[in-house]
Amino acid sequence: MTATPYSRDTLSARHVRGRSPILDVVTDLLDDVTSTRFPLDLPGTEGLRELRDRVETQIGAHLLPRLKREAGPAVVVLGGSTGAGKSTLVNSVVGREVSPAGVIRPTTISPVLAVRSEDTWLVAEHPVTELAQVVPDDGVPAGLALLDAPDLDSVLEGNRTLANLLLETADLWLFVTTAARYGDAVPWRVLAQAQERGISVAVVLNRVPRRVLPEVRADLMRRMTELGLGEAPLFVVEDVGPHEGLLPERVVEPVRTWLGLLGGRNTARGVVRRTTQGVWGTLREELLRLADGVTEQAMAAGTLRSRAEQAVGEAADALVARLRTGVATQGAPTTRWLSAASSGGVLAPLTGDVSRIRKGWRGSGVRDRSRAAVAIGAETRQALAPLVADAAADAAAGLRAAWSEPGRGGTALLMDDDGARDPRVEGAIAAWATRTGTLAERVLGESARALDPAGLSGLLQAAAAGLEGAARAVRSLVPGEDVVAAVAQDLHTTAAEAVRDEARPSLDRLAALGLRSEAGAGLRLRASELRGHR
Questions:
Q1: All residues at 6 or more sequence positions from 9 whose CB lies less than 8 Å from its CB, including other chains
Q2: Fewest beta carbons within 10 Å, which of 99, 214, 389, 395?
Q3: What is the C-alpha separation between 281 and 278, in angstroms, rounded?
């Protein structure tokens, strides 16, 4: 069903004579129901969404108008299957054509609300007037408004939706069917819903050939009894054959007489009160069902969150464990270090007694050593990037697997791979290298005779990634504090965060749903406020 098409201005609470004391509660309840959402596709969620829409319509289009003004006419909705003769029946009861009738299906596309001229002001603010064309006619029994609804099984989806929506506005549902269509499933399903919500129901068996009348009537009464409608009025309109215009007076007289009896002001108000009172028990049960659904959604959201954090957390922990083994320095960084630090290599002086720094390592040696150290740092960063990117891809795969499990509701929240993982990882590693460079400038001190800040930074990066020779050289150059451990910790934190960031877009989507268990508690509180109301 679609959202209820009534304005909040129309339903705004005003002080009117006869206002029900529970009006404020129901007005607040409408706000709560309207804001209730079931965004996760869990088992049974579609049914909860439909229930939420029905309850919203029932409160907004039926309860609130009645609580505000009980003096309004009782709305009698004529509903049924395609070709049941609803429009012809309305016209025949009123005594003239107020709703178009014909052989083309569907005939009733725009709903018609027939009401006595003197009662039009009483329905002027009723939400049903936003859905139906109001046709004044004094042939309508006083105290009633006859609404000719579209077919419940219309070939047009919009008509079916509108028909179900209009039934929610009914004080009395006049179910019109025929000998050929009374067994259709759709109308009986809606009849069951009307019965559950306490809406008064009567049945018109239309166009019944005399030869099948006993059999059809008996079967129909059996079905009504099984549904709990055994005491509902049942009218039989015999088949008069092909005709145009109104039905003969004698054929519709029982229906017209019964409606006329209901049409007395006090009687009509009694119909309204009975239907309104019959709603409370069912409404409380429906609110509790919605509350349970909201709680289930919140719990499912919590499970998705923990599963996402677990998936990316495991991938991040596995990456850090690998980095601690020095895997990032295997290959090119180690080869370059061995070449530069071996006997005669440009970095060889850093592997021996560095106390000679104080005696003066200057000139081109600083520049050459720094250039070699910077190259080792670059090799290290190049080796780190695919390691971190692969771990991030594993995290994304783990998240997708966890959220794609049937019944979790997370599939629709998953983000497609945007192709930006590698740039993000490279950016994170570059930021780590920048921080390392800042640290190198701070701790360089007398080691400036051996390396410039960029060189020390490059050596620090390799050392933090697990290159033992570079780590020993740095500790000799900077003996005062364990900068290698600090930069290594920064590297591990940066890499782990880059992996965990894979879940951030999906978790942001989940958070944006605003699923909170207290919303369910709010609906339960509303249900308790309705307890005992009659």
A1: none
A2: 214
A3: 7
β strands within 216-337, DSSP E: 234-238
For tokens 């005709």, the residue is: 243
Sign (positive or negative) of CA dihedral 135, 192, 227, 524: negative
Cis geometry, peptide bond prior to residue 106 (ω within 30 degrees of 0): yes
The one-letter code for the residue type at 442 is R
Whether the predicted model's global pTM rises above the 0.85 cut: no
The tens digit of pLDDT for each residue in 168-215 reads 677 788 888 888 877 777 777 777 877 776 778 888 888 888 888 888
CA distance 223 to 217: 10
Sequence-ordered list of residues with C-beta below 8 angstroms from that of 174, at least 6 positions apart, any chain: 76, 77, 78, 79, 202, 203, 204
Structural contact between residues 502 and 479, judged by C-beta atoms closer than 8 angstroms? no
Most confident among 300-309, 509-518, 523-532 (mean pLDDT): 300-309
Burial of 237 per CB tally in 10 Å (0-12, 13-18, 19+): buried
Share of the chain above pLDDT 70, in %: 84
* Buried/exposed 300-331: b ≥16 CB within 10 Å, e otherwise: bbebbbebbeebbbebbeebbebbeebbbbee
pLDDT digits (tens, 9 = 90+) for 208-236: 888 888 888 888 888 888 888 888 888 88
CB 522 within 8 A of CB 32: yes
Beta carbons of 148 and 87 less than 8 angstroms apart: yes
Walk across the sheet containing 144-148 and list its strands. Answer: 133-136, 112-115, 144-148, 74-80, 172-178, 200-208, 234-238
CB 436 within 8 A of CB 455: no
CA 391-396-398 angle, to 5 degrees, is 90
Place of tokens 């192709």: 419
Label the pairing between strands 133-136 and 112-115. Answer: parallel
- 3 state DSSP class of 466: coil
Where are the alpha helices (H) located in 45-178, listed in sequence order?
45-58, 64-68, 86-94, 120-123, 157-167
Beta bridge partners of 527: none
Outline where 99-171 has alpha helix (H): 120-123, 157-167
- Which tokens hold the place of 151? 């077919």
Contact 490, 408 (CB under 8 A): no
Which amino acid, one-letter code, is at 498?
A: A
Look-up of token digits 């409404």: 283
Cα–Cα distance, 503 to 506 (Å, whole number)? 6
> Is 428 in contact with 497 (CB distance < 8 Å)?
yes
pLDDT digits (tens, 9 = 90+) for 265-311: 555 555 555 556 667 778 888 999 999 999 999 999 999 999 999 99
| The predicted structure's pLDDT at residue 470 | 95
3-state helix, strand, coil in the chain (%, to 5): 60, 10, 30
